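Much of what follows relies on a compact textual record of a protein's fold. A record is reproduced here so that you can trace the correspondence yourselves:
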Amino acid sequence: MVDSPAQHVLTQVRRVQPDGAVLFCGNHLFVRVEVLKPGVVLVSAHGEVLDNEDVRAEAALLAEFDRELEQVGSFTMFANLRESPHMPADSRKRIAEWTRRHQARLVPSHVLVRSKLLEMALSILTMLVGSGLFKVHTNPRTFLALVKKAAPKLTELPRAPAP
């Protein structure tokens, strides 16, 4: 059986890692997703959505979230976005649309940021979809302590490789 061009692109964008995590790769965006337990994921991002390859990586990431949500019925995310400088408006819009579509099944999530621009983008996202869906953190130790409640054996936050 021959792979279709769409399957080939998805294979390049979505890469399963030896530890079971999945890496979504664009030109300027790498996102590592690890399922900590059913319905609970740890996301580590490096970079941002700047071109079509990054948009494809982001779309594949949201499709992965869809699959997890469909399998389990609810979804909680811990997102380490310390290595992401900001979130472009189109990316905010796509994430807001995904969030609105699944809002009833989303459990409040936690996001770790370093960038004030990204923190402002998340505030805008909150205005678009409503409050209470995620809490923004700036202290890595506090964030890790929250993640460890879902994954007690985790000793440090994993990082996505630089694009």
Remarks:
- Residues 5-150 form a domain with the Transcription Regulator spoIIAA fold (CATH 3.30.750.24).
- The two ends are 32 Å apart (CA to CA).
- The first helix runs from residue 5 to 13.
